[in-house]
Amino acid sequence: MTISRSTDERSGFRLIHVSDTHLSRTHRYFEVNWSCFREAVSASPPHILIHGGDLAFNGPSESHDLAYAVEEIAALGLPWHAIPGNHDIGEAPDYSRLNQPINRERIDAWRGHVGAQWWHCDVPHWRLIGLDTALMGSNLPEEAEQGEFLQHALAARGALHAMVFVHMPPFERDHLSAANPTSYIPLRARATFLNVCASAGVKVIACGHKHVYRKHRHRGMDIVWAPATAMVDIKNPLARRGTFPRPGYLEWVLGPRGASHTLVEPERMFAIDMTGWTRRNGGTTTTLPAWP
């Protein structure tokens, strides 16, 4: 797919990266923040919207959550793409904390409701590439297919800069750490992914999953974590980094010489901390009762 919408070279091509919305028609805990996001985007529409995964509240078990999330995103009236998160398509089987391993049924549900698991989209001066991190370390046939796709998409992009979207961050601080494979791309798959990206001159790796904004550099690549719109864990970021996490999203400006981003934290987007529930109920919000 190619988007050639006219852009002002001084302002560049505007892209919004939103992540971890956790939408559901039956479990509407985070609807107030989604409503705020919808208003902000309507007031200043970007050229394209990329959803970084976890569209749905509990997509692996309730495919109607995926259907509802797609309805909500499509209603924004923007060109958009999405990549799967663990709450959309499940997790790599060996690292399935919630006992929701990615499988044929969940892959088919994603493809049926949302679209491709991996894709590329060309915009002025840039090739955007989306991948499914649930496949990384899964040993499913689709893992190899996605890997071949990534190499070809990077090799065939010509003079375009490359920005790669993944749901899970590659790593926290140490790119050689094997810890927390449900939070970060598992080590073996991570090494392959980072080597391919760095060797091909990828400029940006954009991710989410951890519900907190961060940025760092690795081998010449900017790795930027989008915050969630849905919910935050206040205690851990305060203890680990001394920062108060707020919900929000990222606005990118892409141009011929590079990319820049702004963290957007709308004043009416509330910091919803669900850890009072998750610490006593399986470490997940998917155990919450319905709340229309």
TrEMBL record:
Pfam families attached to this UniProt entry: Metallophos (PF00149)
Signal peptide: none
Calcineurin-like phosphoesterase domain ranges (all copies): 13-213
InterPro entries: Calcineurin-like_PHP, Metallo-depent_PP-like, STPP_CPPED1
A single GO molecular function term of this UniProt record: hydrolase activity
Gene3D superfamilies the record matches: 3.60.21.10
Identification of the protein by name: Metallophosphoesterase
